[in-house]
Design a protein that fits this description.
The protein is mainly α. It is built from eleven helices and no strands. It is about 75% helix and about 0% strand.
Length: about 200
């Protein structure tokens, strides 16, 4: 019988390393996937994931609330943004690297039949369009549309109000739709004219 997560959390807060390791096992894929979606670089996503769990271990006793995943994703977001700030003066990675990282993210989550049905041209275009979003817009579209987080959880992770989350999500979806529409011959007129 599995121990409920809130009991594992309570044990981890008392310094139980085995309990903390169980939390890591439960959430490491989500943290890595979110980190990869933000950084678009597998090696950097590995670093961010590792730094997230190191930081979480040191501060789990101070954690407020009971949503471990949202708390870990918030730490991962902050760690990724720390890397962005350090790299802000460096050259951005190429679109090919971004598409490759996003493609790895899609493959890592056992795609649904609908994902499999998407043709490679549309998938490449979608990867390019999502990769072209700002960090803030990409973060929200990944949290809500890819990971299925609630507005409340996305708000907690991003550290902004639910209204801001909804606004960013709307803008992100519009930008992706406009980007896809701008690629000649990609979408049929009927699909291109449909509102998301």
């Amino acid at each position: 019988m599995q121990t409920p997560e809130h009991l594992i959390l309570a044990m981890a807060k008392t310094g139980d390393v085995d309990a903390f390791n169980r939390l890591v096992a439960l959430h490491q894929d989500a943290v890595y996937g979110f980190s990869l979606s933000l950084t678009r670089q597998p090696a950097l996503a590995d670093d961010v994931t590792q730094e997230t769990f190191i930081s979480a271990f040191g501060s789990i006793g101070k954690m407020r609330g009971s949503n471990v995943r949202a708390w870990l994703l918030r730490i991962a977001r902050n760690k990724a943004y720390d890397h962005f700030r350090r790299q802000s003066r460096r050259q951005e990675s190429s679109v090919d690297d971004e598409a490759s990282a996003f493609r790895e993210r899609l493959r890592s989550d056992n795609p649904s039949p609908a994902d499999v049905a998407i043709n490679s041209e549309l998938r490449d275009a979608l990867e390019h369009c999502v990769g072209a979003l700002s960090h803030e817009h990409r973060e929200v579209i990944v949290l809500i549309d890819v990971q299925g987080q609630s507005y409340d959880d996305a708000s907690s992770v991003a550290g902004v109000s639910i209204g801001t989350i909804k606004s960013r999500l709307n803008r992100a979806r519009r930008r992706v739709r406009d980007c896809l529409r701008s690629i000649p011959g990609l979408l049929s007129e009927q699909l291109a004219g449909a509102e998301a």
